[in-house]
Structures are given as structure tokens and as C-alpha cells.
Request: fold
Amino acid sequence: MLIIGIAGGTGSGKTTVVRKILDSLPEHTVAVIPQDSYYNDQSDLPLEVRKKTNFDHPDAFEWELLAHQIEELRQGRAIEQPTYSYITCTRLPETVHVEPREVIIVEGIMTLYDKKLRDLMDLKIYVDAGADERLLRVIERDTAERGHPLEMLIGKYRNILKPMHDEFIEPTKQYADIIIPNGGENARAVAMMQIYILSALSYQRSAGSK
Reply:
């Protein structure tokens, strides 16, 4: 099994990188675990308190559960991945059944933040992009998909996204084995990453057959 962590700021292009990894591997060989599914359960708090959650701070995540479930997959055991609602700002009762696969991808803004989780990874990738590009992508995405007004997005970027990125996300770049500049549009860097993953997977398969 190959466990890959993919981190990077909001709007950096992580989703594009994940999609290109999926496109390069045979069907049913990859399971993607989104870090967003592991936001803390806040069902015991009033909704008005939950709505003030800073989703870009490390304290928003249940790190122990995420690391435990990745370890379970590594040991060949299926997991019940939690699901999270941004509408109610808490965990949903429904879970997602995830079977172990040859490749497990853990994707999110801070997947390289927690040492226990990092130590479970065979490959750590940081998807990088300039602040201006990330802001533009966030504006395009959130206005189109979530109907958020421009003024609100700019305020959120200045007050939350940028300071949290500078304090907690950007520093995790030091733990990456591979840094992909300019996000998923960096064709050469993505191709090199795909070649590395295919080679590592092939090696594991051949070692396992001996």
C-alpha cells in the first residue's frame, strides 16, 4: 500500500492534482480520504457558536481519528469515514464505507501538519500557488458554487484565509517530498509525480509477490 498526503492552501490546485493521480492509475486502486471529513463533531454546541468555526485552524480537526483511520487502512481494515456539513457546521450521522486500496490519498489544507499523520505517509506532496492566484480561484469557486458575495470573500481572505495560511499551512511545505509549483497546471511537475507514484507502486507489487 502507498499512502500519499497532498497538502496546500485553499485554491492551490490540490483537487486537480488528485484528479490527475486518479487518471494515471487503474480504476479501483485508489481511495481518497478528504481531510475536510474530519472536522470536529460540534453537535453539542448551539448553531450560532458552530457558525463561528475557523475551518482553517488546526484545532478544527479531529487529528486522532484521522490518523487512526489511516492506520486502519494501512493494516488492511476498512473504515467508516465521517461526513461533515458546512451548513450545520457539524458532523453528519452518515458515514462513508472505505475499503483498503493499493493507493490511499489523504487530501486537505493541513494534511502535513500533524506528525503522527505524516509518519504514516509514504509520499508527501505540497501543492503550491501564489497568493493572488489562490485568491482568484477562491473567488471564482465560491461565487459560482456557493453564491458568496465578493465583499464577503475578500474579507474572509484578509481576516482568516491569509493569516491562517501563513501561520499553519505554508510552514508545512518543509515536510514535503515533492513541491508542485503553480498547482495542478504544472504539467511537467505533475508528470514527474505520476511517474514516481507508478514506479513506487510497481516496486511494492513486485516486492509483495516475492
